[in-house]
Specification:
The complex is a heterodimer. Chain A is built from 16 helices and 7 strands. Chain A is of the alpha/beta class. Chain A has 3 domains: 5-45, no CATH class; 53-151, Periplasmic binding protein-like II (D-Maltodextrin-Binding Protein, domain 2, 3-Layer(aba) Sandwich); 177-402, MetI-like fold. In chain A, the strands form 2 sheets. In chain A, strands 2-5-1-4-3 form a 5-stranded mixed sheet. The mean pLDDT of chain A is 86. Chain B is mainly α. Chain B has a two-stranded antiparallel ribbon with strand order 1-2. Chain B folds into 2 domains: 1-46; 52-293, MetI-like (MetI-like fold), CATH 1.10.3720.10. Chain B contains 10 helices and 2 strands. The model of chain B has no long low-confidence stretch (mean pLDDT 88). Classes of the chains: A alpha/beta, B mainly alpha.
Chain lengths: 403, 294
């Protein structure tokens, strides 16, 4: 009996819907890429000078372009002569809008500030070494000074800059090197702590413990994975941070070490599960052959089982790093979040996820800072993508090799 | 002579094994100890704070007194919302991958993407949710934006468990059904899914556990710092337990005085996660026994 047409159609429609759901994860990854870059990429076509402001100099000044870092050094008075910036030998005189009151009286500026543009223009015209940081709206067409173009933020400066002051005036400092290093620093510290521990537990569970002990351990490790990161962070904050502060006699306990310890605990379940699975793939015949030759169980483990499953253990370590790099709340709560170049494990550091979590709420939409945070998110995304693909590659090669 | 040497080697072999195994055992006990210490610490510090009022009252006095009622309700709203999104789509996706997709390359690609999605850090989901749901689609900070973000994040868990559950169904069931003249869809609906259901439900429970504890994805999509009222629609902001704990621990108006509240909140959160985990485990054990008996 042939099936009625509508029934066939119905099955086809259902299959189509299922296929659509099947593609949802690919779609999601694609959308995430698109949206992260869409929000962030505008950063590299923008000037780092605070929105709505300009830098103006005297007409005789040969400088026409200046980069963000120099602007900061000038306004911090670390550079005091134009010669160092590539101009004439003339000392730099800083001028902010507030300074106008010490030059002109209120009457001269006018009740509704109507003469302000002319006043600014005159000041910039009369002082040779001046650099003025004033709102754009006060620069009229008859302005007698010269507005200098700040160099747009470049990817190179962004990646290698050592200063992260995204809301600094007059020029934001968008160097993420301290944040990148902080992330790697904390994650590597975590993996150094958790890999030996995780591996030991994995070996114990796969090779040494009997079935009853294993049945107790498995759910406990699952539970360890299930505890929310904010709980780990809270625990770190009230237990580990004060402990580190007293043990090492530090002014603050919020350090890279605290972050590494918490992350190490959090990465344990990932490492244990994956390493144990890979240890278990060792063929029984190989182990038995080793034992038959007179090797002890321990000799068999470190001469046969571990070398055989080394790629799985590598995958476990890499995935553990991946977990640590992306972890947000726990790190945010215990590392102190100072965006400085890390020098030791006993100093506060800041990671990429913590930076995003701490700062996105305060950055106005589509502003410089907002875009910089989305670029940071994109970098984090790319890092974890590389990690996932590496693990994927290792495990697929493994399957092929062992077949 | 030789036998003496041999016993010596045997002895040192034995000793190194004992030492190594002793270390492994000690480290394993340490890991279990860490877990119990964390749990014990939170329970001991938090148990005195927990009361009926704590669970059913609004926060008061700059969050140093009162309860955490709105945060509990908010978390349940987010759990419900995200499950409504991720469960149907995730299960359908799992069915497609395991039952329909025949092209090996396509399946591998979908699995790769699912794994990638699972590996993306939660804060990146937060950024994405903010960009797409809050800004582009104009939902604002709302339950729906937060639920969709969380749902997307738990999707890989649901897909994977569905896939595993379906894979564990013996092919003879399917062949039997086909032999009786059932179509593919009928087989899935009447035979495969009912057998796989228990395992799928276990995955669902585990993903609920994950949703209830996630903070980073809701920071910019739904979570309110302080909002002592209940939501009226899916476009309202809510408080949520994990974010509330973060606020109490780090940025409340009076951190020292709100510490007890923080311990209490942590305990409630951990209880939810613990119960869900135990439930999933118990279900798994119960169903695996039942299958064996059949």
């Amino acid at each position: 009996m042939p099936k009625p047409f509508y029934k066939k159609l119905f099955e086809k429609i259902i299959e189509g819907i299922l296929a659509l759901s099947g593609s949802i994860t690919s779609l999601a990854v694609l959308l995430i890429v698109i949206f992260l870059f869409k929000e962030g990429l505008g950063l590299f076509n923008r000037s780092p000078i605070s929105e709505g402001y300009v830098l103006a100099v005297n007409k005789s000044n040969p400088i026409s372009k200046i980069d963000a870092n120099l602007v900061k050094q000038i306004f911090d008075q670390e550079i005091t002569n134009w010669e160092k910036v590539g101009g004439k030998k003339d000392s730099i005189i800083l001028f902010h809008l507030d300074d106008i009151n010490s030059i002109y009286t209120e009457a001269q500026i006018g009740e509704n500030l109507e003469n302000l543009p002319t006043c600014i223009s005159n000041v910039v015209d009369s002082i040779g070494g001046i650099v003025a940081f004033v709102p754009k709206s006060y620069i009229k067409s008859d302005f007698k000074g010269k507005v200098i173009e700040p160099v747009n933020i470049t990817p190179k400066e962004f990646l290698l800059g050592k200063e992260w002051y995204p809301t600094a005036e007059p020029s934001a400092q968008m160097g993420i090197l301290p944040i990148l290093l902080g992330t790697l620093w904390v994650s590597l510290g975590a993996i150094l702590l958790s890999l030996p521990l995780g591996l030991a537990v994995a070996i114990y569970m796969a090779e040494i413990a009997n079935a009853r002990v294993r049945n107790i351990f498995k759910p406990i490790i699952e539970l360890l994975a299930g505890i929310p990161s904010v709980i780990y962070g809270f625990f770190g904050l009230v237990v580990i941070v004060p402990l580190i502060q007293t043990v090492f006699n530090l002014p603050v306990g919020e350090t890279a070490l605290a972050g590494s310890i918490i992350l190490a605990i959090m990465a344990l379940p990932t490492i244990i599960t994956i390493a144990e699975d890979s240890l278990r793939t060792t063929p029984r015949s190989m182990k038995e052959a080793s034992l038959a030759l007179g090797a002890s169980r321990w000799q068999t483990i470190y001469r046969i089982v571990i070398p055989y499953s080394i790629s799985g253990i590598t995958a476990a370590a890499i995935l553990g790093i991946g977990r640590a790099i992306g972890e947000t709340m726990a790190v945010l709560m215990v590392t102190g979040n100072a965006a400085v170049m890390p020098h030791s494990f006993l100093e506060p550091v800041r990671t990429i996820p913590a930076t995003i979590a701490a700062e996105l709420g305060e950055s106005p939409k589509d502003g410089l800072h907002y875009q910089a945070l989305f670029i940071l998110g994109s970098i984090l995304f790319i890092m974890t993508l590389i990690i996932n693909l590496t693990v994927e590659y290792i495990s697929s090669r493994n399957k092929l090799g062992k077949r | 002579m030789i036998s003496e040497k041999r016993t010596k080697i045997e002895k040192s072999k034995k000793r190194s094994e004992q030492i190594a195994f002793g270390i492994f055992r000690a480290m394993s006990i340490l890991v279990v100890g860490i877990l119990f210490f964390i749990l014990g610490f939170i329970v001991v510090k938090g148990i005195s704070v927990i009361s009926w009022d704590f669970i059913t009252k609004m926060p008061e006095d700059g969050m140093t007194k009162g309860g955490i009622y709105p945060a509990i309700i908010g978390t349940f709203c987010l759990i419900g919302g995200s499950i409504l999104f991720s469960f149907p789509i995730g299960v359908m996706s799992g069915i497609y991958i395991n039952e329909y997709a025949t092209n090996g390359k396509l399946v591998r690609f979908i699995r790769l993407m699912t794994n990638n999605l699972a590996g993306i850090p939660s804060i990146v989901f937060g950024l994405f949710g903010m960009s797409l749901f809050v800004n582009t689609l104009g939902f604002g900070d709302s339950i729906i934006a937060g639920s969709l973000t969380l749902g997307l994040m738990t999707l890989p868990v649901v897909i994977r468990t569905t896939e595993e559950a379906l894979k564990s169904v013996d092919n003879s069931f399917r062949h039997g059904s086909y032999a009786l003249g059932a179509s593919k869809l009928q087989t899935i609906r009447r035979v495969t899914l009912p057998i796989a259901y228990p395992n799928i439900i276990t995955g669902l429970i585990l993903s609920i556990g994950r949703v209830s504890g996630e903070t980073a994805p809701i920071l910019f999509t739904v979570a309110a710092y302080f909002l002592p009222k209940l939501p009226h629609s899916i476009f309202d902001q809510v408080m949520a337990l994990p974010y509330h704990l973060y606020v109490l621990a780090t940025s409340g108006t009076n951190i020292e005085e709100s510490r007890p509240m923080a311990y209490g909140t942590a305990l409630v959160l951990i209880m939810i996660v613990l119960i869900l985990n135990l439930l999933a485990n118990a279900l798994r054990r119960y169903f695996s026994k039942k299958v064996k008996m059949n």
